[in-house]
Prior knowledge:
Layout: H1 7-19, E1 24-29, H2 36-46, E2 51-56, H3 73-81, E3 88-91, H4 97-104, E4 108-111, H5 125-135, E5 139-142, H6 150-156, H7 163-173, H8 181-189, E6 195-200, E7 202-215, E8 222-235, H9 236-243, E9 249-257, H10 263-268, E10 274-281, E11 288-294, E12 299-306, H11 314-328, E13 333-338, H12 346-355, E14 359-363, E15 383-387, H13 388-395, H14 402-413, E16 417-421, E17 427-431, E18 436-440, H15 453-466, H16 471-485, H17 497-507
Parallel strand pairs: 1-2, 1-4, 2-3, 4-5, 6-9, 6-13, 7-11, 9-10, 13-14, 14-15, 15-16
Antiparallel strand pairs: 7-8, 11-12, 16-17, 17-18
Helix pairs in contact: 4-5, 8-17, 9-15, 11-12, 13-14, 15-16
Amino acid sequence: xxxxxxxxxxxxxxxxxxxxxxxxxxxxxxxxxxxxxxxxxxxxxxxxxxxxxxxxxxxxxxxxxxxxxxxxxxxxxxxxxxxxxxxxxxxxxxxxxxxxxxxxxxxxxxxxxxxxxxxxxxxxxxxxxxxxxxxxxxxxxxxxxxxxxxxxxxxxxxxxxxxxxxxxxxxxxxxxxxxxxxxxxxxxxxxxxxxxxxxxxxxxxxxxxxxxxxxxxxxxxxxxxxxxxxxxxxxxxxxxxxxxxxxxxxxxxxxxxxxxxxxxxxxxxxxxxxxxxxxxxxxxxxxxxxxxxxxxxxxxxxxxxxxxxxxxxxxxxxxxxxxxxxxxxxxxxxxxxxxxxxxxxxxxxxxxxxxxxxxxxxxxxxxxxxxxxxxxxxxxxxxxxxxxxxxxxxxxxxxxxxxxxxxxxxxxxxxxxxxxxxxxxxxxxxxxxxxxxxxxxxxxxxxxxxxxxxxxxxxxxxxxxxxxxxxxxxxxxxxxxxxxxxxxxxxxxxxxxxxxxxxxxxxxx
Length: 509
């Protein structure tokens, strides 16, 4: 008998077996590292019926953090199928077990005893699964076998974490504030009441996926054939989207083109808890950055930008500053991402710093502002996030070790926190008040696209530091956010609080 079958085939098989009076038991999970806890769980589940079927979460739906799952879907299914108590194994064709239960209609849905307390489930999925099994005439039963954690076993080995990552996580685990799933969930939920004002340019990222045909027969140029196009919200619109699952109230203060180009597209993809306030910049289009991508390897070939990076005229600068004054006092913190395309003047920057209760800033060098756009107009910001290359450019220093440079930048900018990202090396944060420098390793092992990663780190680090949450935990949180962001093209998928919470819980087992 073939044990590993498709979900559709499993549904038909279960229907036939039930018509013959067989009692069907379903177990579902990731089963990333098969261990004695799983084996005993299956043994106990088999005793609850005649046929035991196991469904396995597909790789793309595993939300236990970057670098997971350790083993591919096929490997995990083959391991489970090798057990004598298992009758059938199938991949879950859905993103969760709710639809799966309704399709398969088992008599019993079996979960471990660690899922018995619905209040400790950050996803609220177990409660929904219990309702789903009830709706098809079945019941949920929790096994009583001894608990083991795949995540804990994986974290204690070198399967998932480097020695540097393990060392950093072990320091956080010593803090009792984060020694349980409930406490981690409580920390993450504490962001929900924050009112955040996001200021800066909105950017439309047009990605044109192409096939490289080769050199033109008559001219020395590369010829491409366009295959398909995807469009993503970038710039501060992406920051607002990334915050939307963490904070209930977000205001986005941004600019678009004089003729409202892309306004409907922007509003369509902003979540309902984001209040967008637009300034129509005179004689300007909505900033659009078109990049041509080789569709197989996802390699960027070249870009074409549509923008007017001249500063606002005095009338529009006054209008923009009036909008800032209208909103700034009613928000807990301000997040500024300044792309140097003419929206935020020196006067506006000083106004933001002066009037904010807490302000976090990221300025970005790019091909159109190199040598003209500097972070030093934000002296006194509470948090500065900057790429190491940009820091070296600001300090005109290519070679010196980054640690003294970070401290020099802190002194120059008079900022409490200076956060410097260094790609695959990770990031450092310096607290001027305590003179403490903390290094956090990177957690992404699969880089698809770096666009938007610094912005996502800035946003989540800002709300965490504003809430005065432990700095090491805050750094881990921002690193996991970056790892999620960097695995997508641009800002295709906004950061999801539940996924990040699950990742934190997984790593801090």
